[in-house]
Amino acid sequence: MAQAYDKLESTTSRLQMADDLAVFFKTVPPGLIRNVVYLLQGILVPEHHGIQLGIGDKLCEQALSKVSGKTIKQIEAAYRKIGDLGQVAETALSVKTQKSLGGGSLTVEKVYDNLYKLATVSGEGSQDQKISLLAELFSQASPTEAKTIARFVTGRLRLGVAESTIMDALSVAKIGDKTHKDVLERAFNLTSDLGQVAETWFNQGLDAVSQITPQPFNPIRPALAERLPSAKDIIERLGKCSVEAKYDGFRLQVHKYGKTVRVYSRRQEDMTAMFPDIVKATLDQLNADEAILEGEAIGYNSATGQFVPFQETIQRKRKHGVAKYAEKIPLKLFVFELLYADGTDWTVRPYVERQAELARRIIAGPILAQAETKIIEKPEELENLFDKLVGEGLEGIMAKDLHAPYSAGARKFAWIKLKRSYSSKLADSLDVVIIGFYYGKGKRTEFGFGGLLSAIYDPNEDRFRSIAKIGTGFSEQQMADFSELLQKDALKQKPNNVDCLIEPDVWVKPRHVITVIADEITRSPVHTCAWSDKEGLALRFPRIKGFVRTDKSATDATTESEVLELYEMQRQR
Ligand code: AMP
Which CATH superfamily is domain 2-153 in? Predict the structure, then answer.
C-alpha cells in the first residue's frame, strides 16, 4: 500500500493514477477493500461519522523520536530543514537504532486498527497512548511505510486520491473497463461512503451496487445548479418550469429515523449538535417516521421578521454558545427537496412529484416551511418574480425542471440559478481555493499576511489552476485570521496537484475555499485557469466576500468549465 501511495504521488496524470490504482486493487483481498479505500481517501471512516484523526506535528515528532533513537530536538531540526515530516520519518527510520517493539511486517489491518484507536482514545493519558500507538507503527514500518504513515496522520498526503479516480480504478480492477462507473458513482452519491460501495462491488457485484438506495444517516451528496445569463435563456432551456426563491443561507440535509434526527452540512459533516432548533422542529413538523429532506437555513430578525445577511446566518455554525446563538439568530429552514420517506426512494421521481409529496409531509409550524415556488412559462413572468424576490432581500432564483429526478452529486440543468448580479459584467461570485499567500509590504508585514493566491478546480484532471491574486479588501481582523489559519497549512513547495506559474511567498495545501466577486474575467498570460495557446483566464479586481467557506471543501470550488461558461456569458452580454 505504501508503494501504491508512492506511485500515486509521483504522477500527475489522472489516467495513469487510475491505471496504477486498478493494478493495486487487484492485489487487495476482498475483506480489506473497504478500509484500503478509506485510507486512499485520506480518511478512516466517511466524514459523516465524525471521527477525525487530526494529530499535530508535535505528537508525530515524539513518536518518531521514541523509535528512531533521535532526540526531539534532532527530529525538529530535520523537519525545519526538510519541511516534510514524511521524509524526516523515512530518513530517521532508515537508520533505526532502537530495536523493533513488535517485530514482523506491518499489515494494513494493523495500521488501520492503530490509527482508528488513535482517533478515538480520549481522556486522561490519551496523549501518551496516542504516541505509543503511532510509535508502534513506526517501529514495525519500513522507511517508505513510515513516510506514508507520517504524512497520513499529519494530514499531509496530497488531497487524497480523487473519488472519481478511485471509482474508475475499482471498475477496471473488477471488470477490465469503466463500463459500470456510473452505477458506482450513483451509489456513492447516495451514500457518501466509497468504502461501502467498493466492498459491495468487489464482493457482491453490479446488481447489489445498483440496488443501493438512500438510507437515513448516510448523507446524500448534494445536487448542484447550472447558470444561464438571463430569464429568456432559462425558459428556452426548460420551457414551463418551477421557480423557487434562492435563500442566501446554508444548505442542510435533515435525516429522521424514528425519534432520532441528524443534520448534515453540504459536505456531509454531522452538524446535529449545532442545531437543536432544527432537530426539534423536524420532530414536530415532519409527518414521516423516516425521511431525508434538504433545505436552506437562513437567520431572521425575530422583531422584524426580515432575513439577516449570510455573514450573520453563518454564525450559527458554531461549537460553543449554541443555545445563546439559537436565540440571537433564530433560523428558518426552507425545505426544497424530499429525497426519501418511509422506505421510498424519492430521488428517482420527477420534481413535481417530489414537491407534492413534500407538501403532504410538512406540517405548518414556526421553523420548517416549503421553499416558495411558482410555476412559470414566460421570461417576463420570471423577470418579475426575480425582481420581486431580490427586492425582498433574497439572493435570486432557482429555476427547476419539472420532470427531472434529483441529480445527487452532479451539476445539471435540472436546476438553474440566476442571481442578483454583483457587478455589471460578472453574473456570479466564484468559490476559489487558496493555494498560497503573500507576506505583504508596509503595515501588512505586521500581520504576516498581505494577500492570497487562489485557484479553481478541474475535476476531470483533479488539479487546481490559478485564477487570481487577491491583494485588497481585507480587514485587519481578516489579515490576522488568514495569517494564523494558513501558517498551519504551509508547504515548502508547490503541491503537486496545483498548476501555477507564479510563486507566492508561501504555498499552502489546497483546502480552504473563499468566495470572491470580481469585475470581470480577463485573459491572462500568468494564470493557468483554462490555459490554452499561452493564455489563461484571470479575475479582474477580485475582492473577498466574508471569510473561509467552511461549508465547502476544495473539490466543491468553482470548476474550470464553470469559469469558461461565465466567460462566455460575459461575452454574450
Ligand atoms: P450556489 O452556491 O450559488 O451555487 O447556489 C446553490 C446553493 O443555493 C445550494 O447549494 C443551496 O445551498 C442554495 N439554495 C438556496 N435556495 C435554494 C433553493 N430554493 N433550491 C436549491 N438550492 C437553494
Answer: DNA ligase, ATP-dependent, N-terminal domain (1.10.3260.10)
pTM over 0.85: yes
Cα angle 271, 275, 277; round to 5: 155
Ligand 1 atom nearest to CA at 431: 2
Pocket of ligand 1 (CB under 6 A): 222, 225, 244-247, 251, 266, 296, 336, 371, 398, 417
pLDDT, tens only, 143-168: 999 999 999 999 888 666 889 999 99
CA atoms within 13 A on the CB side of 170: 33
- Cβ contacts of residue 416 below 8 Å, gap of 6+? 225, 226, 227, 228, 234, 237, 238, 398, 399, 400
Grid coordinates in use for 334? 426552507
State the DSSP code for 362. B
CA 234 to ligand 1 centroid distance, Å: 16
Asked if 262 and 272 touch (Cβ cutoff 8 Å), the reply is yes
Segments making up each domain of the chain, as ranges? 2-153, 224-419, 430-572
Residue whose CA is closest, atom 22 of ligand 1? 246
CATH code 3.50.50.60 for 224-419: no
Q: 181 catalytic, yes or no?
A: no
